[in-house]
Each structure stands twice: as structure tokens, then as C-alpha cells.
Amino acid sequence: MQCGLVVYNWIERRLGLAKPIVEAAKHPIPASSASWWYVFGSAATVLLGLQVVTGILLGLVYVPSAGEAWNSLQFLNHHVTLGWFLRALHGWGSNFMIAIVLIHMAQVFLFGAYKFPRELTWIIGVCLLLLTLGMAFTGQVLRFDQDAYWGLGIGASIMSRVPLLGAPLVHALLGGPIIAGATLSRFFTLHVFVIPGLLLFSAGLHVWMVLRLGINEWPMPGRLVRKSTYEREYDEQVRMDGIPFVPGAAWKDAVFAAAIILTVVACAFFFGPFGPSGQPDPTIIQTAPKPDFAFLWIYAVLAFLPPALETPFLLIVPVIIIGSLLLLPLVAGEGEKHWSRRPVAVLMVAVIAVTLGVFTRLGTYTPWSPIMNAWTSDPVPPQYLAGRTPLERQGSLVLQEKQCRNCHSLGGVGGQRGPALDSIASRMTEDQIIRQVLQGGGNMPSYGNALNPAETTALVHFLLSLHGQGLQPAVDASRRLIPSSDSGTTQGQH
Amino acid sequence: MNTANAEAGQTENPKQSVNSRRALLFKLSVLLNGVVGAVLAVPIGGYILGSAFKKGSSYDSWVALGAIDEFPEGETRLVDYRNPVTAPWDGQTGSAACWVRRISGDRFQVFAINCAHLGCPVRWFSQSKLFLCPCHGGAYYADGSRASGPPPRGLFEYRHKISGGQLMISAGEMPTLATEACATDPQRIGHPSCHS
Asked: What is the pLDDT of residue A484?
């Protein structure tokens, strides 16, 4: 014991770090800030630590070579003791870190903590969010599988839309003309050296500023932030009811951080690591690439943009989003902090959260994508064949054979790109169906070249037999105006 | 502050002149390091941006896809080839694939598998005569023209020639909207099959 104290004193006399650390730990904070709402920032920092440690441990085995990366991940999963568990911890830690960083951001926004004098803390926080997402994307690339390969293809295709600089940007991203060894090497460098360096440095600045400026006080409705008076008021409040950060608030941070880490451990243990999926071989085209969870919403948005809007949207919207996040504290640095007096702020958080949620949900089942094997794997439901004429049954074969099911569902099974066909004849007349099949339109290709007249006739007759339970077939209202003597000749002209 | 300056101006003590010399020397040393930094930055910048500003056309060269007899007329087939420029550690990523359509006789079309929307691999369905993309549902007709979905144009098409009974394409670069194979050849710009 005595010996330990001597050693400690010997080091401390030379190092001199213990005193400032103890002072920082004991610095007074407003009693109201010792809240469970204030635990997300420290949890994000602890998760960053977990990512650094597990990342270094994965680096012991991972091979950053396009030819070997996928094999080394399989080796980690199956041949290295607990390698699968370390991969799972790193993968789940990444998902949780993004979630906690977003919650932290929403909390800081709703509590008005970005206002004077903490504007720069927010701005660096926005950079931390972007760096965290950068880690998630580059990490997904390092899991060098099919999704990573085609995800890089998507990244390059987005870059190629930049006017004038498109080609140099594509080559800079890929490190050469194709997605290959050079691409993986540069994403390895980004993921392991560049972004973590920036991330740790920025996180250090972020924490330093929280210590220097004091943690945000619990906002009170009607207590406005003014640059001329805020610091004096804050100091006064801390003097009046301040408590030391350790242990006053720190125990809640510690408990929450422990709970989060335990949750990550549990997810890793029960759900296991992410991938790798198929090998990164561009000659294997039987794949439906998808990005990781954090980027599914972008993947979904890209399905809905009209071609003419896509490039402007891709180039302008990110600049607007990031720009407004960075400018927010400079524009709204003073005034009301409490959420109950900031309805627009609350509405914005709600709308953004719902939007991200909806697009992420859509991204999980991609209703806009054809189901490539529906035409061979999903049979026509038997009730749609019962009581049909031979011509109609022949039409159902045409429907399967021509891959209509890849985009259209029957009985709830099949693609969702186009409308379900279960009651198509109650919405479209014979003429409309023929026109739609042969000429396409409204996001459907034309099948005039892929169908001969006999196939078209059979297919249309089958579709006309699908008018749903108890529904009347669609009729052409204009037909009633034509004298009955003419109607025979009109129909005969098809 | 003002009084201190005034006194210094009057007395001109030797320590003050030494200090101003040190300040000048410090400024010069900062300048020197700025120059050294610039000298270092040029090669480092060149190293980082080297791949970005290499001429796109220099990546392409002629690749043989096989004897033309291997491609039945009226059919579209997937063909693998090795990218002309690869590193030994590229592994499978050094390979590539393309769709070869033999219209008739010597008339061919060779499409990139990369969707013009976001580069995902399109699949050919001979029954419905469509290329379909698994990512966002882009669809193309047999001749590569856009049929529906989010792609802004038709499929990328490689330049091809027949040499000694072999079908050859000019390839070497992942085709994107900015790096399509046709655009680098002045003779092919505006050619209908380039869709440019």
C-alpha cells in the first residue's frame, strides 16, 4: 500500500495529470442536468471506445486485399476462436453507435443545447455524425462481399453524376478504373487511419468544450438565452445548486453506458456477425445488393426519384441538409430553449424521424425491385384457374412464362413493382389491357416485341377473368353512347 | 500598454532590439517551413490525385470475348472476361462480365452489366426480352434502350470489333455516366448505339 502511494506520487510529480483530471471530474454542473436525458453523449463515447478496441482486435486477422479479404472474414467467422463474436461486437457496436449518436443529436436539439455559447460544440457534433456515418460506410466496404462490391458501384455511379469532375471523382473513389484491390486498400486506409484519427480528435474537442463551457442546464420555458447575460446566469445557477459531476451525474452515465454495452454484447451473442454475404465477384450477377441498415433510407429514396430530378437531388440536397445542420446554431443561437415553446423544432424532429423510419422500412423489403425468380417459383393460385376456359388457362401460362409475376403479384405473391393483378379486370377494360401490355407506359415496359398475337390474346383473356370476388368487370363508359348496330363492327376491329 | 510602448521607444534598450530580431527570425523560420511544406505537398498531392486524373481512355484496351461462332444469332449471353489492367491481389474483382447480343451475322451489341442508374448488375430475361436491375427496378429492352424505371438512359455499350473470327470489345473501366466506354472515342460520340 505504502509502496503504491510512493510510486503514484513519483509519477504524479513528473506527469501532473491527476490533479486536472480530478478537477474536471468534480467540476460543478447544474443539479437539473444530472438527468437520464443527458447520458447519450457519454454512451456514444463509450461505444467509440468499444469500436476502437474491437476494430484493433479484428485487424489482427483481417487481410486488406481484394483477393483475400472475403476469405479472411470467413476465417474469422469459422476458424478463429471467438472471431465471429468479435466481428459481431464490432458490427452491432456500429449500429448502436449510429443510433445513440442520432438520439443524442435529437436530445441536444430539443433541449436547445446548441445555442450560445455551445454553437461550436454542435458544429463539431455534426462533423462527428458525418464521421460516424463515414465509418459505417467504409466499414461496410471492408466487409468485402457482394453488397460491399455493388455498394461501391452505387457510390461510383453517384460520383459520376457530378458535372465536369465526374470521371476524376470516380477514379479517386475507386483508386483506378474498376472496383478492385486499390479500392479496398484506400477504404481500409480511410476506415482504419484517416476517419478514426479525425473522429478521436473531434470527439476530444467536443468533450473539451463540454467541460469548458459547462453542460447545458435543464431548459425552463420562458428563460431565454441572451449572449449578453447567459454566461453570468449559468455561473450563478451552478453556484446556487451545482453538484459535482462525479459522482452526482456520472453514475447515471456509467449505468446507461454499461446497459448499452451489455445490449451490444447480447445482440452480438444472439444474432451473430453481419455477413459476409456472397463473394465480391462481379461475374456473379445473381445478387440483389443492399446497403447496411443506416443507409437503407438513401437506397429507398433513390428508387423514387424521377430520372430528370435524380442528379440535381443527389448533388444539391446533401449540401442543403449538411449546410443547415452546420448553420443552425449560428442562425438560432439565442432565444427559447424549451421544447414546449418550440413547436417547429418538435415538428421537424418528428417529421424527420418518421421520414427516415418509413424509407428505412421500405428499404427492408424493396417493393420497387422485381423479384427475379417469381416467374419460376410462385405458381398461379389454383382458384384463379378453376372454371377457366382453355384459352384463359393458356393465358396464365403466358403470364408466368413472360415473367409478369416478377413485377405483379397474384394472391399476394410476386413482385410489387407494378399493381397486383388479382382484380385487374375490374379496373381496366379489354382495350386498356391490350394497350398497356403491348405499349407499356406508366413505368411498365412495352411487351409488343416479346409477345406474338396468340400469346397476347391468351394473356388478355386470362387477365379479363381476374375481376376479384363480387366485383363487376370494368366497362368503357363511352361504349354506351355508340348505337348498338355499330358496336359489333367496333369490337370486330381489334 | 501605451505608456510601455512610449517608454520603449524612448530608451531603445538592447534587450528590445534582440527581441525584435528573434521575432523576425521566428517569422522567417515559419516562412521557411511553409516553403518546405509546399515542396512536400506537391508530390503528396500528385500521389493522392494520380489515379483521379489519369486519362480515362488510357485504361481501355481490346479484350477477346471468344469466337463469334460461340454466340448464337438472336441470343443474348453473359460473358466473363479478365479486366485488361489488374494487380496480382485483385482476386475475383479483376474479372468482369458483359452481355453479348448477336443480332445476326456480324452484327453484335455488347452491353455492360452495370445499370445506368446506380451500377447494379442487370439480368437478361430472354422470355420477356428485358434486362432487369435488382436494385431499383430499372428495365431495358433487348437493344439496350431504356424501357422503364429510374435509369436516365439505356445500357452502356462497349465498342466492339471482329478480328480473326474473335469478338473483341474495348473495355477496362467500370462504366458510369461519366466514364462510359463510348464517350472516350471521338469517332463514336453521337453514334446511335452510344446513346450519348
From this structure: 57
pLDDT at B182: 56
Contact indicator for A460, A494 with CB cutoff of 8 Å: no
A180/B86 touch (CB, cutoff 8 Å), yes or no = yes
Domains of chain A from N-terminus onward: 24-365 (1.20.810.10), 374-492 (1.10.760.10)
Closest CA to B114 of B72, B76, B157, B146: B157
Q: How far apart are CA A201 and CA B42, in angstroms?
A: 26
The DSSP call for residue A205 is H
Task: Tell me the Cα Rg of chain B.
Answer: 30
Q: Within an 8 Å CB–CB cutoff, is residue B49 touching chain A?
A: yes
The whole-angstrom distance between B122's CA and the closest CA on chain A is 7
Q: What is the structure's pLDDT at B147?
A: 93
Q: ipTM of the assembly?
A: 0.88
Q: Which residues contact B179 (CB under 8 A, 6 or more apart)?
A: A160, A166, A167, A170, A171, A177, B56, B173
Compute the half-sphere exposure of residue B175: CA atoms within 13 Å on the CB side of its CA: 29
| Contact (CB<8Å) A178/B96 | yes
Q: Is the pLDDT at A91 greater than 90, yes or no? A: yes
Tell me phi and psi for residue B43, to 5 degrees: -65, -35
By the CB < 8 Å criterion, does A400 face chain B? no
pLDDT at position A478: 77
pLDDT at residue A336 tops 70: yes
Query: In angstroms, how far is CA B183 from the centroid of its own chain?
Result: 12
Nearest-neighbour CA in chain A from B145: distance (Å): 11
Name the one residue in this structure whose C-alpha cell is 388457362. Answer: A393
Question: Amino acid identity of A364?
Answer: T
**B193 to chain A nearest CA, in Å?**
19
CB pair distance less than 8 Å for A289 and B120: yes
pLDDT > 60? residue A57: yes
Which residues does chain B have within 8 Å of residue A279's beta carbon, measured at their own beta carbons? 92
With CB atoms and an 8 Å threshold, state whether A287 touches B92: no
- Specify burial of residue A159 (Cβ count, 10 A radius: 0-12, 13-18, 19+): buried
Q: Predicted confidence band at A467 (pLDDT cuts at 50, 70, 90)?
A: confident
Candidate CATH numbers 2.102.10.10, 3.30.365.10, 3.90.1150.10, 3.20.20.150; the one for domain B56-194? 2.102.10.10
pLDDT score of A402 more than 90: yes
**Which grid cell sits at A90?**
464490432
In chain A, which residues have their Cβ closer than 8 Å to the Cβ of B93?
A: 66-67, 149, 178-181, 183-184, 280-282
Mean pLDDT computed over every residue of chain A: 93
A254 contacts A48 by C-beta, under 8 angstroms: no
- Please report the beta strands in A210-338, taking only residues with DSSP state E, as ranges in sequence order: 242-244
Place of cell 348498338: A484
Partner-chain contact A401 B127, CB within 8 Å: yes
Give the mean model confidence (pLDDT) for residues A277-294. Answer: 92
Measure B9 CA to nearest chain A CA, in Å: 39
CA A396 distance to own-chain centroid: 39
A279 in contact with chain B, both atoms CB, cutoff 8 A: yes
B129–A449: do the CB atoms touch at under 8 Å?
A: yes
- Say yes or no: A63 contacts chain B, CB-CB below 8 A: no
**Residue B66 dihedral angles phi and psi, to the nearest 5°:** 135, 170
Residues B133 and A154: their CA atoms lie apart, in Å, by 13
